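Appendix B, example 12.
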Amino acid sequence: MTSPILLYEHPLSPYAQKIRILLREKGLAFEFRTPEAIGTGGPNPTLAQLNPRFEVPALQHGGVTLFDSTIILEYLEETFPEPAMMPKAPIDRARMRTIEEVCDTHWEAINWGLGEIRFFGRGGAELGPVLRRAAEVQVGHMHAWLGRLFGARPWLAGDRFGWGDLAALPYVTMSSMFGIEPAAGSGLADWLARGRARPSVAKTVEEALATIPAMEGVSQWVKSGLFKRQFRDHRLEWMIRSGGLQVVVDGLKNDDIRFTDTARFADGA
């Protein structure tokens, strides 16, 4: 009997979306849950036990708990090798990892910033539009970068859908959710349409879109102190280099942003 696969996540997280897509492409049954009070930085025994970073996604399978989306993807690929999502040649595998790395860091930070503006009211009426314009320019850079990687191939992984595609689609789709689309008629736009037509992607995008109405009111959670957003790594860099240093200063003053607490690692959480 196969051990059940349990994914703790939030459907709007691109890190979780790429795991959902891979699971569905492999035809694996799984259950997903969203931990209570996710993102608050407050008491949450379940989330603390899953990941000392106090964030999702996390995966439980065979009595083991894993966190970090790339590590989870690699575990699933090695545990359930068919159908393979990674190509065989080392150089092609390196290309797929490069695509995932850029999307998980630089592109994720831009989309995250768009979410901070729209859902959490960062920057207000004056600075918010400035940050939005910066994000629009930067997504254009990402579109240009990704569009160059196809050549004559239909998929980033080659002749068939694979790792690079499932790693990039959540980010291109998320930018699209914020109203920033690839140029009409471009190869990237065609690829996005092909990708979103796949059942694995279509279902994952449907689940993400279903959460947006609930997100429209979360700015009140920030103002009331019930929600602390994770400002770290490329996210923090994005906010500062895009002109939002004051957002960080205000967030520290109002105690509505948070960083990784290394004490959670020491505590064995």
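The chain has two domains: 5-79, 90-213. Confidence is low (pLDDT under 50) at residues 39-45.
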